[in-house]
Amino acid sequence: QVQLVESGGGLVQAGGSLRLSCATSGRSFNSYAVGWFRQGPGKEREFIASIAWSDGTTDYADSMKGRFTISRDNVKNTVYLQMNSLKPEDTAIYYCATNPNYRLGCPDCEELYDYWGQGTRVTVSS
Questions:
Q1: Which residue among 14, 95, 102, 111 is least enclosed by CB atoms within 10 Å?
Q2: Cα 11 → chain centroid
């Protein structure tokens, strides 16, 4: 059974940093990518970044480049999202998800993701 568990969210002041974790289990590592998405209050869910387990190839939404960094630890089966210089508009629930179809080349296509975690809440105060 595939499971994803996010952690690391919380309350942080503007300008601060957080590192989110996504612990994965139940799937062959080389067969998928893991993506991070977020959904802010009253907003649609948006893509942040993804990383392929097999070779570490990363993709980022243009708006997320520079402040957000995705990485993986193959030993711990965990994907991270380092978030720096946080802003109040980064307040959202952050989700990770697995994409077995990442070779199709559409990392921000939600319909290609099949398993999702429960989310972790990030609140950035001004």
A1: 111
A2: 18
In 8-119, DSSP assigns E strands to 10-13, 18-25, 33-39, 46-52, 58-60, 68-73, 78-83, 92-99, 115-116
Please give the average per-residue pLDDT across 38-44, as a whole number: 97
Q: 64: which 2 tokens?
A: 């997320």
pLDDT digits (tens, 9 = 90+) for 56-65: 999 999 999 9
pLDDT at 28: 74
In the chain, the amino acid numbered 50 is: S
Calpha distance 126→124 (Å, rounded): 7
Structure-token pair, residue 102: 């990442």
Q: Are β-strands 3-7 and 18-25 bridged in parallel, bridged antiparallel, or unpaired?
A: antiparallel
